[in-house]
Structures are given as C-alpha cells and as structure tokens.
Write a structure and sequence with these properties.
5 strands, OB fold (Dihydrolipoamide Acetyltransferase, E2P), 10 helices, single chain, elongated, 5-stranded mixed barrel, alpha+beta
Length: 204
C-alpha cells in the first residue's frame, strides 16, 4: 500500500496532479485545501505528499488521495467513517481548512459544515453525531499561510540553473545576471518574472 510519495510535479488539473516518482507517474487526487497550497508551485518542482490509498470491490481501480500533513490524512480517515461519506465525496467536500471543520464539529455548527461541497443538513448532523468529541487534536492544526511566495534563494537558483544548463552561461555570469535583476526589481515573485527581468537587463 502507498502511504507517502515524493517526486517531480508533471501536471496540474483542477482536482488532481501527476507526480513522477522513480520513473513512474502517479495520478493523485487532491482536496481543494491541498491544491491551493500548490498554487505557487511550477511544473518540475519537487513536492511530497502523504497518501490515502483507496481500492475496494466496489472501487477496483486504485485511487490515490494526497495531503500535505499526516494529520490531514488522519482527519480524512475519520471523516470517511461517517455514514454516506466515501473517499471521493470527502475529497470534494474538503474545501475549507481541516482545523475549521474540526472546530465546527466540536461546536455542533451544522450550518458551517453545510458550507462543505456536497454536504447537506442531514449529512452535517451525521458528521457531528459520529465525530463530536474526537476532533480536539485536529482543531489545533496550525493555520497555514496561503499563497506563500517561494524563498528568494529558491527563485534565484531556478533561474541560475536554467541560464547555466540550457543557455550556456558560466555559473559566475548567471549569478551576476540574476543578482542584478533582483536588485533592479525587488517585487519579483516567480521564476518567470525573474527570467524576464534578466532578459530585459541583457537586452538593454
């Protein structure tokens, strides 16, 4: 059974990614809360995910569902223990942070739970009845900063690697070009913007 994967991001779709690990491409479904954290990741980036592996007689085709944190995967396993909530329905439902869902369950806030995709009033009350009293740990998950920008060093290194490996520059030249570009434009937030600024600098 697959419980964890790390590898290169090959493809991103609305609710799934393709991850290259040891020369094998794994299609992994992601809840919206996990997909949002990949907004700043580019094709080719290295990522790692905890995996929930689903295969049954009713669902013979294996399904892989990915999470950033092991505790998110643990919450998911509790969530699908609720009657009428299978793994595929749960993936679509998780459109708000786990900590917020856990707090809604503990406070018996059915209206909040009904904001989850595909969860109606009857199911919201089933969730509360099944999971209330088991959610304290999940309610304490640290609030994640969304849309974090990649560190400046990571940004610089990606463009330096491109200049050296694909465009034929010496390492010292590439480092100088990138440093000057970042000095000219301190608001650069992605590799493409940095590369364009390097190009502008050389063109002028």
């Amino acid at each position: 059974m697959i419980g964890y994967l790390e590898g290169k991001l090959l493809k991103k779709e609305n609710d799934r990614i393709l991850l290259l690990t040891n020369h094998v491409g794994y299609e992994i479904m992601l809840p919206a809360i996990v997909m949002e954290t990949l907004n700043t990741r580019s094709i080719g980036d290295e990522i790692s995910l905890y995996i929930y592996f689903q295969q049954s007689e009713r669902q013979p085709k294996p399904v892989l569902i990915g999470f950033n944190l092991e505790i998110e995967k643990e919450f998911f396993q509790h969530f699908i223990s609720v009657e009428d909530i299978g793994p595929l329905k749960a993936v679509k439902a998780l459109c708000m942070p786990v900590r917020d869902i856990a707090r809604a369950i503990e406070s018996k806030d059915a209206a909040k739970l009904m904001q989850l995709k595909g969860i109606g009033n009857r199911t919201a009350h089933k969730i509360i009845a099944t999971l209330e009293g088991k959610m304290d740990k999940f309610a304490l998950i640290r609030k994640q900063e969304q849309n974090q920008e990649p560190a400046a060093e990571d940004l610089a290194q990606k463009v330096i690697n491109l200049l050296v490996s694909q465009l034929g520059y010496k390492l010292s030249e590439a480092k100088t070009m990138v440093a000057e570009a970042m000095k000219r434009n301190k608001s650069i937030s992605g590799p493409e913007e940095l590369f364009e600024e390097v190009y502008r600098g050389e063109a002028s």
